[in-house]
Design brief:
alpha/beta; serine acetyltransferase, domain 1; 5 helices; elongated
């Protein structure tokens, strides 16, 4: 392939990607306006939100990646990292309506899959463990997943739809749908059967303390055993 053909291929891929992803980009903008109380106008979001800029460049890079134009795709992703502080590998598959809030330090690995209407805060890593090989090494997020600031999801695990990962959590195993996971390593403290706050209402503080939950369960068990023991002695 000569230089002329490369330029034509890149231009065509860029045009197709822009046309195909225009609706997705619009939904990304709508998602930010809906979920970020600091967003005062669509113009502000379009011009000033680094998370949106990183997503737009990723959609272009991903289109080139699928055309097996790996070097220009990676070049775009590295440029996006340089100007936004957000590193998204061109191979990552991202659905519509993703909101990357603030975004600094976000890393999304090559085989990551992100569903629709997810929210990711600053410092989040969707990465590998360094020990896995093969075609799928990074996490999968379902739809409507919220990942709090500084959380790390490492390995080929799935976070089910409508689930929330608390700030600072380290996820090393699957998280079921409609669940809340907190701690290091992360443990599920809410799941089906218990009312879960909608993602947009979660403030990353109003979440249960897993240690307190465990202590409460132990205290309850001790009280039950004491009652049984006192009953037997009488």
């Amino acid at each position: 392939m000569d230089k002329h053909e490369i330029v034509i291929t890149l231009t065509t891929a860029f045009g197709k990607a822009a046309y195909r992803d225009i609706k997705a980009i619009k939904e990304d903008i709508d998602a930010i306006c809906e979920r970020d109380p600091a967003a005062r106008s669509r113009a502000e979001v379009i011009l000033l939100y680094s998370g949106l800029h990183a997503l737009i460049m990723h959609r272009i890079a991903h289109a080139l990646h699928k055309k097996n134009l790996k070097f220009p795709a990676r070049a775009i992703s590295q440029f996006a990292k340089f100007i936004t502080g957000i590193e998204i590998h061109p191979g990552a598959k991202i659905g519509r309506g993703l909101f990357i809030d603030h975004g600094s330090g976000v890393v999304i690995g090559e085989t990551s899959i992100i569903g629709n209407n997810c929210t990711i805060y600053q410092g989040v890593t969707l990465g590998g463990t360094g020990k896995e090989t093969g075609c799928k090494r990074h996490p999968t997020l379902g739809d409507n997943v919220l990942v709090g600031a500084g959380a790390k999801i490492l390995g080929n695990f799935t976070v089910g739809s409508n689930s929330k990962i608390a700030a600072g959590a380290v996820v090393l195993c699957d998280v079921p749908e409609n669940s809340t996971a907190v701690g290091i390593p992360a443990k599920v403290v809410k799941r089906d059967g218990i009312k879960v706050k909608p993602a947009e209402e979660l403030d990353q503080i109003d979440i249960p303390d897993p240690i307190e939950v465990e202590i409460g369960a132990l205290r309850k068990r001790v009280e039950e055993l004491e009652r049984k023991l006192n009953g037997d002695l009488k």
